[in-house]
Amino acid sequence: MRMGLMAGVAAVVLATPAMAQETTADRPFEGIYVGATGGYDVQPNDVNSRLLFDRNLDGSFGDGVPTGTGAAPDAFAPGYCNGAATTQLAPGNGGVCRNDRNGFSYSGRIGVDTQRGNIVVGAVAEFGDSEITDATSGFSSTPASYVLTRNVSWEGSFRGRAGVAVDTTLFYGTFGGSYAQIDRRFLTTNTANAFAVSGDRKQFGFLGGGGIEQKIGRNISFGMEYMYHQYNDDDTVVRVTRGTANANNPFVLAPNTTGTDFRRSDTKFRWSTIRGTVAFRF
User: Fold this and answer.
1) What pTM was computed for the model?
2) Which contacts qualify for 178-181: CB closer than 8 Å, 24 or more apart?
3) Do 138 and 72 touch, CB atoms closer than 8 A?
4) What are phi and psi of 77, to 5 degrees?
């Protein structure tokens, strides 16, 4: 009896490591991981992007800016471009407008997954940077150019993740909130008026996308991922005051001689990312 019991205990002890290994192999995406991403960001074309004006400073944008002499009804008749002006002249008048710049991005991440059968559910936190720059330009008949640009200084996100594992391959979707510092710059060839830029640089947004992750060995995985980023950037305003300009300057014409506010019409800052991923699972 005693010999039989001892033999049974020994069998269980010897079998335990094998059972643990089998359980781990059945759940290759279980546990905590750290990783990194690297890829390329691409922006959509902001068709018909322009500047919007608020002449009476009532917070409603869409007013026209007449010329000071009355020779033309619109001081911005030369037009606008979806990019950054490099001269004071509009493209139709011999000027050049530089396209928005796409660029590389990178990030670090930490996450945790739980796997039950083929279903994987988890969460991931990420922090990174991007090289993209987005611009909109307007041209006045003076002539002068007015350029608003924005780029991402840093971006953090916290997202859920869910997918289906096929052996050691995971197909997943991910979605969650994000928070970014968006740096803005304003440039103009108008040296007569005075300009002041206001607006919160930090913005909430969201990220969503999906990807594929392939386990290589016990701890390492590689993958490819698509992500869509979007932020509402509607509180950046440039106020134009008289400065050293004449009293009949278009920006300070009656009935409001204080000045004129303007902002860009494309208030959604958005882009897509294609990137590779690497992770180490503990």
Assistant:
1) 0.85
2) 178/204, 178/205, 178/206, 178/207, 178/229, 178/231, 179/155, 179/203, 179/204, 179/205, 180/152, 180/153, 180/154, 180/155, 180/156, 180/205, 180/231, 181/152, 181/153, 181/154, 181/155
3) no
4) -60, -30
- Class of residue 214 by CB neighbours under 10 A (exposed 0-12, middle 13-18, buried 19+): middle
What are the residue ranges spanned by the domains of the chain? 29-281
Given a cut of 70, is residue 178 above it in pLDDT? yes
Q: Are 85 and 139 spatial neighbours (Cβ–Cβ below 8 Å)? A: yes
Task: Assign residue 70 a region (left: φ > 0; alpha: ψ between -120 and 50; beta: otherwise).
Answer: left
Q: Is the pLDDT of residue 43 over 90?
A: yes
Residue-wise pLDDT tens digits, 201-259: 899 999 999 999 999 999 999 999 999 999 998 888 999 999 999 888 889 987 788 99
DSSP state of 131: -
By C-alpha distance, which of 123, 100, 103 is closest to 112? 123
How far apart are alpha carbons 229 and 43 in whole angstroms?
A: 10
Using alpha carbons, select from 208, 225, 129 the residue that is nearest to residue 170. 225
Alpha-carbon distances of 258 from 48, 74, 212, 237, 247, rounded to whole Å: 29, 19, 56, 15, 11
- Which CATH number applies to 29-281: 3.40.50.10240, 3.30.230.10, 3.40.50.300, 2.40.160.20? 2.40.160.20
Residue 129 burial by CB count (10 A; 0-12/13-18/19+): exposed, middle or buried?
middle
> Furthest-apart CA pair in the chain: how many Å?
113
CB atoms inside a 10 Å sphere around CB 215: 19
